[in-house]
Design brief:
heterodimer; A: mainly beta; 4-stranded antiparallel beta sheet; 0% helix; globular; B: 112 residues; mainly beta
Chain lengths: 114, 112
């Protein structure tokens, strides 16, 4: 399967713990996006990378969130000191660079903070 | 920043009818607009892209229109089937080379 994969698919954690999610994009895609989605809402942009460079980060993203894409391939999203409000589906997507590009989404990681 | 509204949270239609979903945006017209389908517990799947200089785009039973004067896109599914039941999201790019903004989605149910 050459689609976008995410790991884990589900994560339950206690408030205050740190969690890390991984995304493996489609190999020839140089753009990688992270989104958060809560029930009944569309995906909300968090950050994106072009190759290994993090080009934009949402103003809504607190400093507890950090993302990396060290070699321009897979990416990790870490949430430190999790809060109950962090409970959501975290989606990763990849695309080619350039205009008029569609995004290919992974299945998401569902996070529940108790 | 852009804000996207989609006409209704949920839409129920009878099988065989045409479903029409609306996407309205608030600020400047984007260079293009996209529509995605999302099934429960899954990531969105790209359906169609329409550019600002295109009035209409078709793909099989799907049709998208883009009216930059009204700041609106319409998404039509003709001869709808129960398998078309899903949430449909519209999205646009905030600025060239920047992030994407998604609407809240419309949950479509096609009743047999």
């Amino acid at each position: 399967d050459t689609g976008v994969s995410q790991d884990p698919r589900h994560k339950i954690t206690k408030r205050g713990q740190n969690v890390t999610f991984r995304c493996d994009p489609i190999s020839e895609h140089n753009r990688l996006y992270w989104y958060r989605q809560t029930l009944g809402q569309g995906p909300e942009f968090l950050t994106y990378f072009q190759n290994e460079a993090q080009l934009e980060k949402s103003r809504l993203l607190s400093d507890r969130f950090s993302a990396e894409r060290p070699k321009g391939s897979f990416s990790t999203l870490e949430i430190q000191r999790t809060e109950q409000g962090d409970s959501a589906m975290y989606l990763c997507a990849s695309s080619h660079a350039g205009p008029f590009r569609d995004q290919y989404f992974g299945p998401g990681t569902r996070l529940l903070v108790l | 920043s852009q804000k996207i509204e989609q006409n209704s949270e949920a839409l129920n239609i009878q099988e065989g009818k045409t479903a029409t979903l609306t996407c309205n945006y608030t600020n400047y017209s984007p260079a293009y607009l996209q529509w995605y389908r999302q099934d429960p517990g899954r990531g969105p799947v790209f359906l169609l892209l329409i550019r600002e200089n295109e009035k209409e785009k078709r793909k099989e039973r799907l049709k998208v229109t883009f009216d930059t004067t009204l700041k609106q896109s319409l998404f039509h599914i003709t001869a709808s089937q129960p398998a078309d039941s899903a949430t449909y999201l519209c999205a646009l790019e905030e600025g060239y080379g920047q992030n994407f903004v998604f609407g809240p989605g419309t949950r479509l149910s096609v009743l047999p």
